[in-house]
Amino acid sequence: MSHRNASGAKTQEIQETVDLALFGALGDLSQRKLLPALYHLDREGLLADDTRLLGLARQNLELDAFKEQVRTTLTRYTKPVELDDTVLERFLARLDYVRLDFTQTEGYNAIRQWRETRRPSPLVIYLAVGASLYGDICRHLQRSDSLDESCRVVVEKPIGHDLESSADINDAIGDVFPESRIYRIDHYLGKETVQNLIALRFANPLFGTQWNQNHISHVEITVAEKVGIEGRWGYFDQAGQLRDMVQNHLLQLLCLIAMEPPSNLDADAIRDEKVKVLKALKPFTGEALGRDVVRGQYTVGNSGGKNVPGYLEEEGANTESRTETFVAMKTEVANWRWAGVPFYLRTGKRMPEKLSQIVIHFRQQPHYIFDPDQRGLATNKLIIRLQPEEGIALQVLTKDSGLDKGMRLRPGPLHLDFNDAFSKSRIPDAYERLLLEAMKGQQYLFVRRDEVEHAWRWCDHLIAEWEAREEPPRRYPAGSWGPVASIAMITQDGRSWYEDY
Ligand SMILES: NC(=O)C1=CN([C@@H]2O[C@H](COP(=O)(O)OP(=O)(O)OC[C@H]3O[C@@H](n4cnc5c(N)ncnc54)[C@H](OP(=O)(O)O)[C@@H]3O)[C@@H](O)[C@H]2O)C=CC1
Ligand SMILES: O=C1O[C@H](COP(=O)(O)O)[C@@H](O)[C@H](O)[C@H]1O
């Protein structure tokens, strides 16, 4: 069936009716991300007419009060031009609400009863709650007879704190749901440009033939955040930037860059290849650790023209904390395709701006004939920008124009800005895509258990080495690009972080 979206355009065939049960419907993730994402799916005509959304939380709310709360949320987190009264009313009319303490068996019958009022349809169960509740919720759902084979469960990161705790959580979910019905979110996989990485690499022979150590000298992945820890000290201080960002988002990006071509686009074909990359990641040994990894923690500084506190002065802080808010590292994927190609990763909070980008640096020509002073310029770079302003630019070298320039080279972009190129359609938020794929039963943008566990294994090893060294993190002022040592780390290889922000 085709359908018209908010701009009157025909959308893809509408999917079958799929219902959604949202645990933690009044929490931060649901309010800021999931409910707005579901509203947009409705606006795009991608929810079946009779799809219903059951909110579950422990507050004692009447349905009307829940709807009012969602209305307020959508008004707050949706751009005014995208808030359409007709769609909003249609969306609110889809909502139901059940008050429930997720840890108690009593009350889960309400979910079974809710399902019995519905025409049989698949159910996506989204657990927008801390991972310590996943096992309880799955068990209670099963015991209350609320599940059938059409039910899929979506779980948020972080799955555990290390390999062991992650295995416990995965076991608890796996006791109730088979892997084929478990959808582990890494919201970076839902970002438009990340999806484009797959298209770019595997649809363009131009890149396919160059994508290896013969042609690529090194790869940079930067995920810089302007924000600090946003009132999440309790969670963040137990995690740190390695667990919070590298174990999941950065390693997923690295996998998509480094993996071998999958034999098709099936979820398992892609995930098998990602696992091979994770297994091939070089562990850091004693000497490499000191040289190739930099941990940092921000101190007071200036962000966007405002003075901001240091990590140790944040609300709720323990002033002795050695938790890192920044990590930079040089790693390698030890296989034939990538031998000798460093992957430089860096991510931090309180950086000068929000910026996520991957830069692929191609090797120089084997024989150089231009001005020796310009030799440093003479490489191609592929810049894949995830945020802000999603886009892909290929930096090429051309002759500088003008009679007085001779054969001077000028680097310049062949540029694809997704907002310009596809200006007719807005770029969907990552959660819209992920929710839609979960509702369609497509797992390729979700993380399989062995991926999570191999990523933990590698991080656990690094954390154990850090702990053995007992070194405090290096300081960097809020609003800077991290400790000076992170610049020295790459400069010692005769390179620099790509800075054309
Ligand atoms: N917020 C974000 O941007 C991101 C969140 N995540 C992950 O998403 C998940 C949810 O995070 P977030 O929304 O921030 O967390 P919140 O604490 O804001 O939301 C969790 C919700 O679950 C409810 N809840 C907790 N325990 C129970 C219980 N026993 N019975 C009923 N309700 C309960 C809480 O209710 P109450 O308020 O009454 O305690 C709260 O509304 C976490 O796993 C987090 O790691 C991942 C990436 C980003
Ligand atoms: O998962 C997380 O991601 C956010 C950054 O996400 P982005 O889409 O805004 O780049 C990060 O702030 C948070 O600490 C982490 O848990």
Outline:
By secondary structure, the chain is an alpha/beta fold. It has 15 helices and 19 strands. The strands form 4 sheets. It has a 9-stranded mixed beta sheet with strand order 18-17-16-15-9-14-13-10-19, with helices on both faces.
Write structural notes for this entry.
There is one protein chain. The protein is an alpha/beta fold and 501 residues long. The chain folds into 2 domains: 2-186, NAD(P)-binding Rossmann-like Domain (Rossmann fold); 191-491, 2-Layer Sandwich (Dihydrodipicolinate Reductase, domain 2), CATH 3.30.360. 35% of the residues lie in helices and 21% in strands. It contains 15 helices and 19 strands. Strands 18-17-16-15-9-14-13-10-19 form a 9-stranded mixed sheet, with helices on both faces. α1 (28-43) packs across α2 (63-77). The two termini are 44 Å apart. The chain binds NADPH dihydro-nicotinamide-adenine-dinucleotide phosphate (NDP) and the ligand O=C1O[C@H](COP(=O)(O)O)[C@@H](O)[C@H](O)[C@H]1O. Residues 187, 225, 244, 356 line the site of ligand LXAUTJHC.
Task: Describe the SSE topology.
Elements: E1 3-4, E2 10-11, E3 19-23, H1 28-43, E4 53-57, H2 63-77, H3 85-93, E5 95-99, H4 109-116, E6 123-127, H5 134-143, E7 151-155, H6 163-174, E8 182-184, H7 192-203, H8 205-208, E9 216-224, H9 233-258, H10 267-280, H11 286-292, E10 293-299, E11 301-303, E12 306-308, E13 326-331, E14 343-348, E15 355-362, E16 381-387, E17 391-399, E18 409-417, H12 418-421, H13 430-440, H14 449-469, E19 474-477, H15 484-491
Parallel strand pairs: 3-4, 3-6, 4-5, 6-7, 7-8, 9-14, 10-19
Antiparallel strand pairs: 1-2, 9-15, 10-13, 11-12, 13-14, 15-16, 16-17, 17-18
Helix pairs in contact: 1-2, 1-3, 1-13, 5-6, 6-14, 9-10, 9-14, 10-14
The protein binds NADPH dihydro-nicotinamide-adenine-dinucleotide phosphate and the ligand O=C1O[C@H](COP(=O)(O)O)[C@@H](O)[C@H](O)[C@H]1O.
Ligand LXAUTJHC is lined by residues 187, 225, 244, 356.
